Amino acid sequence: MRAESLEYKDGDVTLKGFVALDDQSDHKRPGILVMPEAFGLGKQAKDRALRLASLGYAALAGDPYGNGLEVSDLQEAIQHAGAIREDNTKFRQRIRAGLDALMALPQVDTDRLVVMGYCMGGSCSLEMARDGAPLKGVVSFHGALETQSPAEPGKVQAKVLVCHGADDPFVPVEHVTAFEEEMTKAGVDWQVISYGGTVHSFTNPEADGSIEGICYNKQADERSWQAMQAFFDEIFA
Asked: What integer pLDDT is reported at residue 25 of this predicted model?
């Protein structure tokens, strides 16, 4: 198993991702870009990349901020996330840099690509779909659904899976409804799975409930991972 840091660039910004794949085979396999929560590239996204590698995929956990920046304070995370999302063109460019780095890996089948992510990373995946990136699919786990640049009819190439906590105070039901309407108007093949009794960050075991509206939910985590695997079986068939 290859599991190591990988430097790549977005213009003059050096980004430090984390690549995980089985390097004992030259066989090309689907590539998955994993974008992390607003706290930056940390343990959760890296662990998910390793789990994806164990399933036979080539995974790159992307760096949203540069130099592998990771923060622990929520308000600091919100500030960094707000800054990077302020200009949607630059935001999409930052994610594209990670996708380009993934596609450059010799083990990756560039005709079978996915972007997935958690919290802000979920927003990253949806922005790549809206931007018309050459993807088979995107997956958002408890990601924000609103956008500055809604999907246009005929532009989205990816199928879309959104895994959402039904009681997530940061993604209210009106955002879910607006997203569904946006995807339908754009002619997208989309799914939204809402998990009852579930709030934000439900996939992150480090979300201990100390912040209101943010708490791990083991059952929703496991169900959403199974839904993702079924989705991959479909799009990579």
From this structure: 83
Sites in the chain below the pLDDT cut of 50: none
pTM of the model: 0.97
Task: Residue 143: name the closest of 219, 70, 64, 208 by CA.
Answer: 64
- Say how far residue 17 (Cα) sits from the centre of its chain: 14
What domains appear along the chain, each with residue ranges and CATH number? Answer: 2-235 (3.40.50.1820)
Alpha-carbon distance of 142 to 127, in angstroms, equals 14
Rounded Cα distance, 168 and 185, in Å: 25
Closest CA to 164 of 183, 131, 139, 130: 139
- Nearest alpha carbon to residue 166 among 217, 190, 200, 206: 200
Radius of gyration of the chain from its Cα atoms, rounded to whole angstroms: 16
